[in-house]
Amino acid sequence: MTSTHPVFDEFAVLFDDYRVHYGQPSALQSTRSWLREQVARHRLAAAAAIRAQEVCGFITVTVMPASLRLGTAWSIRDLYVAPDHRRTGIADALLRHVIRNAGDAGAHRVSLQTETDNVPALTLYTDIGFQPVTGLELLNLTVDPPRHVP
Predict the structure, then answer these.
(1) Which residues pair with 143 in a beta bridge?
(2) For the chain, which has fewer Cβ within 10 Å, the N-terminal or C-terminal residue?
(3) Which of 136, 111, 132 is CA-nearest to residue 123?
(4) Among candidate residues 22, 15, 9, the one with its CA nearest the CA of residue 121
């Protein structure tokens, strides 16, 4: 998906729906602009599932250096399927698309994260072969608004 792809605007609409699903206010113009910038600057790669000329799901990925392996690791950032298209194999197809492309690009691994209570997603991910990571903690530091670090 490029920012000039014919279905980019439909992708942006579905991405805005995804944000609303997770409690954010709808902001289609801002969403579209943000996505264009992220994709154009290669900060985010995206693929869309299209059925009957309708964008019905998408997946986004970042590619990061894997320093110890002197390679790359792909991180799935977002995966969303429109409610009317769930349980039809779209999420599975999008995941397999990313895994295949990561392998073709020589990536060391593909990772993702989801909430611990998202049983349908966890089932899909483990069925495909993703394994939980043990011995690590996910830590965040919010910097919005910017804070002074001594």
Answers:
(1) none
(2) C
(3) 132
(4) 22
